[in-house]
Structure formats: structure tokens, C-alpha cells
Amino acid sequence: MLIKNQIYEAQITDYTAEGQGVAHIEGCAVFIPNAIAGERVRVRIEKAQKTWAAGKIVELLEKSPHRRNRECPVAKLCGGCDFWHMDYEEETQLKAQRVKDCLNRLGGENLEEIPILAAPTCLGYRNKAQYPVAQKKGRAYAGFFRAGTHTVVENPRCRILPEQTDAVKDIVIDYVNQFRIPVYDEVAHTGLLRHIYVRRGVVSGQILVCLVINGQKLPRWEELVKNLKQVPGFTTLVLSENTRKGNAILGDTFHTLYGPGYIEDTLCGLTFRLSPRSFYQVNHHQAQRLYQAAIELAEISKSDTVLDLYCGVGTITLAMAAAAGQVIGVEVIPQAVEDAKANAQRNGIENAQFFCGDAGQAALKLEQDGVRPDVVVVDPPRKGLNADTIEALSRMAPKRIVYVSCDPATLARDVALLKERGYTLQTALAADLFPRCAHVESIVCLTRS
Ligand code: SAH
Hints:
The protein is an alpha/beta fold. It has helices spanning about 90-105, 165-180, 220-230, 285-300, 315-320, 335-345, 360-370, 385-395, 410-420; strands at about 5-15, 20-25, 30, 40-50, 50-60, 115, 130-135, 140-145, 150-155, 195-200, 205-215, 235-240, 255-260, 265, 270-275, 305-310, 325-330, 350-355, 375-380, 400-405, 425-430, 440-449. α7 runs parallel beside α8.
């Protein structure tokens, strides 16, 4: 076992899923933030367990050619991003490597290399921000949590957000300070304002502001609306009531104070209505490329039935509708299903149906009702597919399964399960939807052998 506070020399050989460097010292895996593969470092051990340890770089002995000065002044503290200390080439390389390693180790594949759709820019790409609000010496401020804590790190200008989003945040904070709106304290569970949520349509320019409050009413909100109107594109102000303890950001109840309560945006040539509760990929440009890849891999023909499980507001479902005979979307969040139905209508799409429910249970029900899709698209949250969904896929036996994933480890686990049920992996692709952050998106196509 390594000794806490002792300094060791180490060679960084790999990365964790969270983007930390990995070294092996005396047979023990050591996780080191801000380290780059290939570097030699002196590391101070901060936590020592039997098989693993965590440490911090105290000296860089050999620097990677991929090391860069951080463009963001708070990057080292802020838990929002992970990779400002390296160039983008290294970042995309490690993301592709991670997807490949997962599919090989957990998915039983033997892939040599996986291509990655790299992003054209790392700046200003995020169309959504959820700023936690905090208070210091009687002054409110907003920012992002420091990694692994609930300490809010202030960042006047977040590099991955467009400036309008930060401008909204500043206006809300000014209003909070001016009218002494109580800031939420999660330990005492007192105060009012918890989070400032901002979503901006990249194409429409429309901005939705949703304030998450520990209560029902927001005092003097008319004053806030007056100021928000200075930001071009400000469209709607919504309150989300979240009076529960815990880490969930949004509450279950929403009240629209100003505007329609949703914004619109254009994606893959279609217009989408987006409510605060609905999922929408945060990187518009890269999402379009990802969906384009999904459409190509699905190889849909005009008589095909396509089932899109975990469909959100129907982005992929509706983007596939023109090529298919009929498309069916399933989604668990009622507001997202309402958005999806409205989205079919506003785009004049008549061959789409949407159901609200758990993907697995709904798919089993559809199977019982005789639905036999030719292609199934799945795009689950990080935990991947549940047993019901795997079972339904196995029974419906589509020709092709296109699996869009935000966690390569659960993707690889599910690929292994689908292989046991007669499927073969045809294509795998990584996509960078989160430049400077450790998350990586991937997409695979499986066909029935
Ligand atoms: N394909 C969509 C959404 C993907 S995100 C898009 O690209 O825009 C995953 C979606 O799955 C979210 O909308 C989430 O609300 C939904 N979801 C989560 N758990 C689910 C479940 N058990 N059944 C159905 N949908 C679920």
C-alpha cells in the first residue's frame, strides 16, 4: 500500500472515465487529475487504499507535447470541464480510445480503432446551463460546482457557453442582490433561489430562463422580466418549484411567468418545441452530425417501421420519419412526449406516433400488440438499457438496432447482451458532443445475424 502524503515518481499511462490520468506505482493504480498520458510526474498521495490511490502532481518531470496553458482561468477549480490542460487532439484521441476499450473489454469486441466525430469548436457550444446559486458575505453569485463538492466556483465568463447565457445569469444575480431574494442554503434547506437554468436555441436564438425555487412564489419577478428583455432572444421565464432536499435540480411543478413556457429551435431541418423538462442535446452542431450518422446506419427504407426508444422530444424519431413507413417514439417524461407530439404536428409529419412510458415496458406492450419494427433506435440515459428493453428487442427481432449512448461502459455491456441474442456489431463511432469535458457520446449499429 502506498503511503499518504509521501511523494512518488510516476509515469502516466492511461485515463479514467472521468478524464484523470492513471499511473501504476508498486502495483497500485493511482488516479491523478490534470495529468496527460506519457507524462512523468512527481505525485503526492492524498488518499491510499489497498488497490488504488489518488494523488496530485507536485512536479512535472516530463511534459506531454499535448499540454496547453488553460484558456479558462477557473478551469482548475471548476468541476464543469476536465481537459483545458491539454490540446483538443489529445482529448479526442483519448475519447475514441475509451469507447474502443469499453467495446473490446466489456463488449467482447476486437476493434483496432474507432473514428471520432471531432467538434469544430470547443467554445460557446453549450446551449444549456444550470448554474447553482450561492451566497458569500451577503452577496449572491452563480457558477458551477467544484469537482466532487457543492462549493460554487464563480466564473464571470464560461468558455463553453455563449455570452447571452452568461448575460442572463448576471441579470438574474443582479436582481437577486437588488431585491434581496433569499438564496437557497442546501444544508439548512432554507432560502428561495436554487438554480438558474438557461436554454438557448442555436438557430432560433430564443432563450428560456427557468428559475428553480424552494417555494411557490418569486417576489418582484416583473422587474426581472423587464431586465431580461435586454438580452436579445429572451422569450420566456418559467419557475420550477423544487422544495425537496437532494441533488435533483428541477422540481416537478412548472409555472410560466412570462412568454409561452418553451422555446423553439431547428435541428436536422425540423423545428422543435422545447420545454424546460425536455431533454435536448447541448451541442447543436455535433448532435446534428450524430443524428445524421444514426440515420445513415439505420438504412431505413420507405416501408420500414422504426421504433425510437428514449426519444425525448422526438428529435431522432422525426428526423427519420421522412425515410420510413412509420415511426414510433417512446419516452418517460410526459412534457417531452407532449413536445414530441407537438413537434410532429408543427413539421407536418403524419406517420409518427408517441407513447409515454418506460421504454422496456412500452416496447414489451408494443411487441404483444404485434408491432414488429424493422429498425429500433435506442438512446438511453447513462445507466443503459434495462432487462425489459433487452427482452423486448430480443422478441421483436428488428433487422437493425442503432444504439446511441452517453456511456460507453453500459453501451458495451448491452452490446454483449445483444450479441447473446443473435446480434452482431457492424459499426462503432465515437462523437464529441462535450469538448473540454470527459463525457463522450458513441453510436453503434448491430444487425441480426
Ligand atoms: N433521443 C433523444 C433523447 C435522448 S436522452 C434525443 O437525442 O434528443 C434520453 C431520454 O430518455 C430522455 O429524454 C429521458 O427522459 C428518457 N428516459 C429516461 N429513462 C427512460 C425510461 N425508462 N423509459 C423511456 N425513456 C426514458
